[in-house]
Every structure is written in structure tokens, then in C-alpha cells.
Amino acid sequence: MSVKIPNGTTFEIASVLSVPKPFTAITNAKPAVLTAAAHGLANGDVIVIDSAWAKLNGRPARVIDSDVGDFAAEGVDTTSVKNYPAGSGAGSVRAASGWTQISQITEPTANGGEQQFLTYGFLEDDDDRQLPTTKSASSMTLPVADDPAQAYVAVVEAADEDKEPRLVRANLPGGATIYYYAYVSITATPTLSRNNIMTRTITLSFASRPTRYNA
Questions:
Q1: What is the pLDDT of residues 94-141, one digit of tens each?
Q2: What is the rounded average pLDDT of the residues 185-207?
Q3: Taking the mean position of all CA atoms in its chain, how far away is CA 29?
Q4: Residues 6+ apart with CB under 8 A from 38
Q5: Does residue 10 lie in a domain region?
Q6: Residue from 195, 210, 186 nearest 76 by CA
Q7: 155 with 208, same domain?
Q8: What's the Cα-to-Cα distance from 191 to each of 3, 13, 184, 204, rounded to whole Å?
């Protein structure tokens, strides 16, 4: 058993996603292996996967076992042919670069992700029952000190303007990393509350489930 505090966590946003690199096949394995000619990816590169498999589409991953003509997506488990029908997951990947720290964050807040339920009951029953269905949409808010000189501001404002998802990562104390693929927005006007620092709020609206790698 162990407990951790988040002090020292840093967030970064990728300013660039490469042009799509097609892959023609993907295995039902852990980790999943993607077949892609002349992919140009190296071990440790961070990618987002666009796939015909809905449960994989938009998933961030790190590249491992890179070789001529194929590479593996670290931690990505596609062994279930129910969720990932064999032979039908082809698509493309885009590599992230230009990581820029989102600095001077005050109190991040995670929202959503709660399990939803279908409640039903039979005529002869006294008690209702529940079946798990989907989870609610997830997002995170990052209040930041208002400082237009910070390098990340232009990156975040560009994401707000074009409304295309970006890769964001949280570097946790102890070496773990969480990757998010999210729509990024930022409030235009800072807060103006007497005797409090001026802040703007960055919102990450997750386009897929995050991927976490332990140290």
C-alpha cells in the first residue's frame, strides 16, 4: 500500500502532430504491433492512433520495438477479438513533437468519467436493479496564472481557435506519465478578483481514454 501527493506534477502540450502515417494492419496482441512501411518512428516517440477500431481510435501511445516495416504501441492491449475484430483495425498514426510546459498551474480539477447505469425493475419485484452502461464524458480544468509571456499560451490559444484535439501529458512525481488526447480551450479574460492572483482557465475535453505509463 502507498499514497502519493501530486506536488511537483507538470503538464505539457504538444505543439505539433505530424502528417498521418498509414498502417495497413494491426495485431490482436499486447502490445499491439502495427504494420507500416517507411513509418520513420523511433522507440519512445509519442503517437495518437486513428483506427477503424472504435475502442482504439484516438488512443495515445508510446512507440516500442520499432523495426523496418512495423512497430509496437506500448501498453495497448488489443487481444479481445470481440472489441477489436481481427483484420479490421487499419488506420494511421500521428507523432507528437514540440512539447511545451503549461506552467504556473494552481489547482487542477478532473470532471466526469462516472459510471452510468440503466435502472429497471420487474412488475413483481419490490427492488429495482441496475446495469452498467457507459461512462460520462471526461474533462480536466487547469487554472493558470495569467502570464501572456509564457510559451504555452500561443500553443493553447491556437488549439482553442482551430478546435482540433492535441496531445497533452502529465508528468507525475515518481516518474509516471499520463497521456491525454483532448480538445483544448482557454478563457479569453483573466479573473479579476481583489487580493487574488489573476488566472485563466484551460479546459481539456478528452477525446479518448488516457494512457498511463508507470515509471
A1: 999 999 999 999 999 999 999 999 999 999 999 999 999 999 999 999
A2: 97
A3: 21
A4: none
A5: no
A6: 210
A7: yes
A8: 34, 23, 19, 19
